[in-house]
């Protein structure tokens, strides 16, 4: 799901957030979906247990960089999340 979503982001958005390896995310998705029998499962494990949590920490910071004047309030998406909890 992450790779599919990353593939649909605009180039402009990806350019504004170069700290995230968008092309690698999409490529990983394509291999997992289209080359299922050649997937290297130890790599999948690392992606799921190490890379995904690190990606989450990066992604959770995007709203703050896109909307620096916004402050999440009670009941709003992202409320209560910060980089420590991510």
Beta-strand portion reads: under 5%
Structurally, the number of domains stands at 1
Tally of extended strands? Answer: 0
Shape label: elongated
Mean model confidence by pLDDT: 86
Q: Given the helix and strand composition, which structural class is it? A: mainly alpha
Describe the oligomeric state of these chains in a short phrase.
single chain
Number of helices: 5
Helix content: 55-70%
How many strands, what sense, and barrel or not for the largest sheet?
A: none
Distance between the termini: 19 Å
* Rg, alpha carbons: 15 Å
- Uncertain runs are none
Order of helices and strands: HHHHH
Description:
The protein has 86 residues and is mainly alpha-helical. It has one domain (2-66). The protein contains 5 helices and no strands. The longest helix has 19 residues, at 41-59. The protein starts with a helix and ends in a 20-residue tail after the last helix. 2% of the residues are buried.
Short note summarizing the structure:
The protein has one domain. The chain contains five helices and no strands.
Secondary structure: elements and pairs:
Layout: H1 2-7, H2 11-16, H3 22-34, H4 41-59, H5 62-66
Keywords:
single chain; 86 residues; mainly alpha; 57% helix; elongated
């Amino acid at each position: 799901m992450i790779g599919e979503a990353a593939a649909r982001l605009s180039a402009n958005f990806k350019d504004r957030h170069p700290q995230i390896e968008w092309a690698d995310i999409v490529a990983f998705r394509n291999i997992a979906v289209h080359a299922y029998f050649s997937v290297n499962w130890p790599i999948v494990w690392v992606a799921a247990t190490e890379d995904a949590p690190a990606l989450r920490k990066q992604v959770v910071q995007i709203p703050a960089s896109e909307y620096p004047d916004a402050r999440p309030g009670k009941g709003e998406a992202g409320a209560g999340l910060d980089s420590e909890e991510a």
